Amino acid sequence: MNVPRRAMLLIVLMTVAQLPVALRQLLVVLLGHQNTGSFATAGVASAGCGIGLALTAPLVGRLLGRLGGRPVLLATGLAHLLALLGLAVVTEPAAFVALATVAGLSTPPAVGSGRAQLARMVPAPALARAYAVNAVGQEVLYVGGPLAVTLSLLLSGPTAALLAFAAIGTVGLLGMAAVLPPREADRQPAGRRSALPGRATRRTVVGTHIGYMIGIGAMWVLVPAFATTVGHPDQAGLLVTIWSVGSLAGGVLLARLGRPGSPAGAYLTMLGTLAATSLALLLPRSVPQMAVALAVFGLALAPFLAVTDEILARSTPAAQLPETYGWLQTAGQLGIAAGSATSGAVNDHLGNTPGFLVVCGALALALTVALSRRRTLRLPSGPPRAEAVGPAVTAGGRGFVHDDAG
Q: What contacts 93, CB < 8 A, 6 or more positions away?
């Protein structure tokens, strides 16, 4: 796949480092109920994690650009680890919610830092595939993670599970800190905020991402609700897994075959595919039918996210790229919250099938935004600018016109 070994190692370590963050909200709910005896407290604590991440992601990303990856990863990693250790022993509801919020606020920027480094480490012809491999790694995490939590609960309970995943994530974070190269040349001088090239592109992508994540947030509510509606609530986890496996398959195909056409064209195609296949979610009346619809709907998820990362990497100066990914995370958290709340209300008042119209509508809105601003998505056909993705990327010597042609 022409992805450098060092970049592949970084993707593996990034995925491992993200493990406790990906499973944090699930574990916080389980642990919160165990420690405090209240699902209400557990729910507020889980929300605190998400809100904390949304608040600090852009700030931490800016620090990455100014200070470099190692000090920021190590400092946030230590604070996050201490917060998770505190959650394992605290039983007072207010303290549990406070520590969960601290865990969200101190979330290590493993994904943002890793994505930004891939833009520096990978030659231009292989950049699309590198982000596809990263998307596959994230899908493996979200497919296998819940299964690992289930196994851990059977063996030891939520406390031991949280501690185990926290330890594994810390090892991955330390590995990332060791792999990252020095970045003194990429640091942005303090107090200097020049007008950035490609700002319109980033606004389009972040704005579109909010609509996309509204749809994803709605799915997390509506898929379990569908399983309950058809009389098989125990099949909700299976349906979510099938959805993720579809996304995993799409990411593997992109990593194997390469991105079709230009980044802008692939971005609009993947988003259009998501909007079109979401309509099939209105049709199923049984678990097997929904499984097929979810598998098809999932195919374009990982490819869309991979192309999103690529466009941001090619339109953002190196020092601002981690901060841009931070804003993307913030937009994602806001979208998930809006989608979850809206779809839950529609599901309760109008039924499950009308609830999926929230997904269709959100993706249609995202596609409309992207199409109306499609000119901002066009990137230079030559090699990426050194100030956009760093010198290492220009070493490929070719633009994206021919980079994945076989």
A: 36, 38, 41
C-alpha 305/C-alpha 299 separation (Å) is 11
CATH 1.20.1250.20 assigned to 197-377+398-406: yes
- Residue 109's closest CA among 60, 181, 174? 60
Distances in whole angstroms, Cα of residue 102 to Cα of each of 42, 67, 86, 95, 337: 15, 22, 10, 10, 19
Residue pair 343/355 in contact by the 8 Å Cβ criterion: yes
- Per-residue pLDDT, 380: 59
Q: Where in the chain is the domain with CATH 1.20.1250.20?
A: 197-377+398-406
Q: How many CA atoms lie within 13 A of 67 on its CB side?
A: 14
| Residue that is written with structure tokens 């909010």 in the block | 210
Regions of the chain with pLDDT less than 70: 1-2, 182-197, 380-406
- C-alpha 223/C-alpha 160 separation (Å) is 29
Of 10, 119, 8, 5, the closest CA to residue 65 belongs to 119
Residue 244, CA distances (Å) to 71, 85, 110, 302 in order: 34, 30, 21, 9
Using DSSP's 3-state secondary structure scheme, residue 95 falls into helix
Q: Is the pTM of this model over 0.85?
A: no
pLDDT at res. 195: 40
End-to-end CA distance of the chain: 11
The predicted pLDDT at position 180 comes to 83
The amino acid occupying position 228 is T
Give the orientation angle of helix 93-105 with respect to helix 69-89, to 10 degrees. 160
The rounded distance, in Å, linking the Cα atoms of 354 and 188 is 48
Asked if residue 130 lies in contact with residue 12, where contact means CB atoms within 8 angstroms, the answer is no
